[in-house]
Amino acid sequence: MKLGFLEKFLWGGALAANQCEGGYREGGKGLTTVDLCPSGQNRLDVMKGNIAELKINDDEFYPSHEAIDFYHKYKEDIALFAEMGFKCLRISIAWSRIFPNGDEEIPNEEGLKFYDSMFDEMIKHDIEPVVTICHFDTPIGIIEKFGGWKNRKFVDFYLNYCKVIFDRYKGKVRYWMTFNEINMILHLPFLGAGVRFEDGDNKLQVMYQSAHHELVASALATKLAHEIMPDSMVGCMLAAGEFYPYSCNPKDVMEAKRKERENLLFIDVQSRGEYPGYAKRFFRENNIEIVMESGDEEILKGNTVDFIGFSYYSSRCASVDPEVLNGKTSGNAFKSVRNPYLNVSEWGWQIDPEGLRITCNSLHDRYQKPLFIVENGLGANDIVEEDGSINDDYRIQYLRGHIEAMKEAILDGVNIIGYTPWGCIDIVSASTGEMKKRYGFIYVDKDNEGNGTLERRKKKSFEWYKEVIKSNGENLV
């Protein structure tokens, strides 16, 4: 018996509409949360909901407005993905292309046609669409009117959107994920759920209540998808990464457990169908009262997800020692204690391939459901040589280590159905708004200020990943 990657393993890449499409007001599209996230020093405060403005400021630069112009260039980009041999492409639908304000009764036909054309182009190249329904893309219209996901009305707006896209794209899309990195609501609440805070708010109450509404919406969307598309696979999506105790001090071990549970809470609900005991204790001790409607518990219990999608960039460390806590490093929206055994990227993210194997095993042991690694990659400042080549050996080394770890997890008995490295073509960084923080196999000529020709150019990693896919993960040299 051949061990390793399944014959139908879904090799591919991952993108998000708000980071690649551009065309932010074309085709009838409305504004979304990311359209209001500028580059520069205000970006993080906007994403956290600390800046309350819901308008575009003339003196700010918004990198998502043009991004890499995938809206107009998707056919040539998908052809490049096909040249690499992609079996799937993870992409998201911009909610505000379908419902510009979020609460219209009639969807925007021009937006629906755009995704029809994009999915048709993928299918023409035998690339399976893997679609995130809401990837940090909440329409500003309903945020202005109703205040974001803290308002229960958002469940209905979301389900109306889901029904339209499920009806429209059944037969074209089988794999769906309801919310991107749903746990990010605790770290970037405006970006994740359109949440802004008022003076005097219990911020934890607001964030967890908003998350409850997303969890109910996710369960109902899963139910709806199974009714409309009986063969569909619906997943959740977690910003993952194992928390290691910094030492064998039992207090460090318990702190790592606490951090891990904070991270996994929403996936526990989506996969197991109920709030766990540790969450109920946390709610009690922090004056959080989750307001539920009649039937919510039954909805959550009866409509769990089919697979666990997750991003993995690095592991994290946890400690209670004040001196250790002073040595924190970066890592997506998370701050983590620096692990002395690991190297870091240019942006301070810890590099830990073995942590992917550990994370896969932990998620498998906890949920016993198929896993889909839908984001993984290295953000780096790639240099174009005089001859036009981009020799990103550091990216190849990073991905090779993580694919080897993924293979080890499969040998451990973990059911992994696919792997889509993040930003398979260079896109706008979600965390910093930069273009120079590049992840792709394909270079896009654009800088942090929005200058450039948008020309596409293959990096060294392009041919390497093409061979990885062709050999079904056997040739990693």
TrEMBL record:
NCBIfam families: PRK09589.1, PRK09593.1, PRK09852.1
Protein name as it appears in the record: 6-phospho-beta-glucosidase AscB
UniProt keyword Hydrolase, yes or no: yes
Enzyme class per UniProt: hydrolase
Coiled-coil region list: none
Tree of life domain: Bacteria
GO cellular component: cytosol
GO molecular function: 6-phospho-beta-glucosidase activity
Organism: Clostridium bornimense
Organism classification: Bacteria, Bacillati, Bacillota, Clostridia, Eubacteriales
Gene: ascB
Residue intervals passing through the bilayer: none
The enzyme's E.C. designation: 3.2.1.86
Family membership: Belongs to the glycosyl hydrolase 1 family.
Key words of the record: Glycosidase, Hydrolase
Active site per UniProt: 375
SUPFAM superfamilies (alphabetical): (Trans)glycosidases
Keyword Hydrolase: yes
GO biological process entries: carbohydrate catabolic process
